[in-house]
Structure formats: C-alpha cells, structure tokens
Amino acid sequence: MELHTIGIDLGKTVFHLVGLNLRGEVVVRKKFSRLQLLRFTATGRSS
Q1: What is the pLDDT of residues 1-47, one digit of tens each?
Q2: How many angstroms separate the CA atoms of 25 and 20, rounded?
Q3: Where are the domains of the chain?
Q4: What span, in angstroms and rounded, lies between the C-alpha atoms of 35 and 3?
Q5: Backbone angles phi, psi at 20, to 5 degrees
Q6: Would you say the C-alpha torsion 31, 32, 38, 40 has a positive or negative sign?
Q7: Cα-based angle 26, 42, 3 (whole degrees, multiple of 5)
Q8: Does the predicted model carry a pTM greater than 0.85?
Q9: 30 — phi, psi (to 5°)?
C-alpha cells in the first residue's frame, strides 16, 4: 500500500490517521494510541 497523503487528527490520548492514494481515495483509516502512532509512522505498519 502506497500512501500519497496522510492526515492525522491529534488528540490527547487517541489519534486518528487517514491515508490517501494518488487518486485521493482513502486507503487507510485507523485509530491509534500515542505509542501505536509512533510505531506506525516509524515502520509503516501497525503492530
């Protein structure tokens, strides 16, 4: 999965991430804790 644009809603404890492809279609929509978001942005996958 290749992301062209990433949007992150920064909350206090929960973060929402939306990723778009080149066409502007949503290809990923996830909810993360702070640690999960750090891992996802560092590796490109959630664990």
Answers
A1: 788 999 999 888 999 999 999 999 999 999 999 999 889 889 876 65
A2: 5
A3: 5-43
A4: 21
A5: -115, 150
A6: negative
A7: 25
A8: no
A9: -140, 160
